[in-house]
Structure formats: structure tokens, C-alpha cells
Amino acid sequence: MIESIFRTSSLGNTQPWIFRIAARVIVIAMIVMGFGLSVGSGVVLWRTKSWVETSVSATGTVTAQSMSLQRGGPVGAPGRNTSASSRPTRAEVVAFTAADGTRVEFRSKISSSDPFAVGATVPVRYNPADPSDASIDTWFRLWGFPLIFMAVGVLEMCVGIIFLAVSRRVSA
Q1: CA–CA gap between residue 17 and residue 6 (Å, rounded)
Q2: How far is CA 16 from CA 9, 68, 163, 166, 170, in A?
Q3: 101: helix, coil or strand?
Q4: What DSSP element (H or E) covers 160?
Q5: Buried b / exposed e across 125-150, counting CB within 10 Å, b at 16+?
Q6: How far apart, in whole angstroms, are the C-alpha atoms of residue 90 and residue 111?
Q7: Which residues, 6 or more positions from 156, have their beta carbon under 8 angstroms from its beta carbon?
Q8: Three-class SS of 35-89
Q9: Prediction pTM value
Q10: 160 near 30, Cβ under 8 Å?
Q11: 76-103 pLDDT, tens per residue?
Q12: Which residues pair with 65 in a beta bridge?
């Protein structure tokens, strides 16, 4: 099946050289994009690891939920898509007390359709030099998205490499 993409058209004739080149360009682009996605995710994971190593734990309380649309900014913001197809998501606003006694409030960087409830106690990590640089300390919120993007990048590279190997074998 994969070989047929590179060898013959639906009429059984050999594909013109332009189609073979276009297919290879697309496959190489897949490999490059997958590599870029993997490297970018690796950088984010490395930065997250460094941040976690220097951050401090605290306990916070969800004080509010900031609602936004999945494809835009805050609900009702000018120029934002407010159609029924847009799904509202919420990001928690969390308050905690830093080690020096300062009360800090931050908005979660991740919005969800199922956030922590207002009044819920949540684990928090924050940068002691800048307590406003904080995050809810759950595994998925710290590591989930970079790992998902890395897996997608690796998968895209593997598929591209397989297609490239098959195309070279077929044209040989």
C-alpha cells in the first residue's frame, strides 16, 4: 500500500517525476517538523525540570475561575469568536502564602473544561525569587503537554522515516 504511493498511479502507470519529488519533499518536511517538535518539547521539559528543582512547594486555594473561549481570549473580548461552536474553558485563580509571608495570587497557565472548584485546596510550586511565577503542582500540568508534543514529534519523525525508506526502496 505505502509502496503504491511512490510507484504507481491509480491507472497503474508510473507516476511522473514531479509527484515522486513532491512526495519526498512532504516526507522530509514531516521528518524536519517532527524533529523540531521533539527538540522544542525537550527544551520545555528541560526548563520545567530546572524550574521544579529551584521552586518551592506551598498550598494554595482556588479563589476564582477565569473563563475563556477555547479559540480566543476572554469571553466577550472584542474581535473574539463567540459562536456556539467555541467551547468555554476555565483557568483557576489561585492564592497562596509565600515563605516570606507575602500573599500571592496567580492565574493558572492551563485552561480546562473541568478545573478545580472554587475553594479547593491545591498544591502549588513557585519561584522563591519571583512568587508570581507559580503553577498548580500536578503531574499533568507540569509535564503532560511537553510529553504529549514530544510523543507526537517522535511519531511524526518515525512515520516520515518509514515513508522515506519505502520510497527509496521502491525507486531503487
Answers
A1: 10
A2: 9, 50, 18, 18, 14
A3: coil
A4: helix 145-171
A5: bbeeeebeebbbbeeebbeebbeebb
A6: 5
A7: 30, 31, 33, 34, 37
A8: HHHHHHHHHHHHHHHHHHHHCEEEEEEEEEEEEEECCCCECCCCCCCCCCCCCEE
A9: 0.70
A10: yes
A11: 555 554 555 567 788 899 999 999 999 9
A12: 92
* CA dist 28 → 8, 95, 140, 171 (Å): 20, 48, 32, 16
Query: Contact, 114 vs 107, CB < 8 A?
Result: no
From CA 57, how far away is CA 143, in angstroms rounded? 16
Cell numbers given for 105: 495570587
What pLDDT does 72 receive? 46
> By the 8 A CB rule, do 134 and 96 touch?
yes
Give residue-wise pLDDT tens across range 37-69: 999 999 999 999 999 999 999 999 999 988 876
Which among 169, 168, 166, 171 has a CA at the least distance from the CA of 1? 166
For 107, the grid coordinates are: 492565574
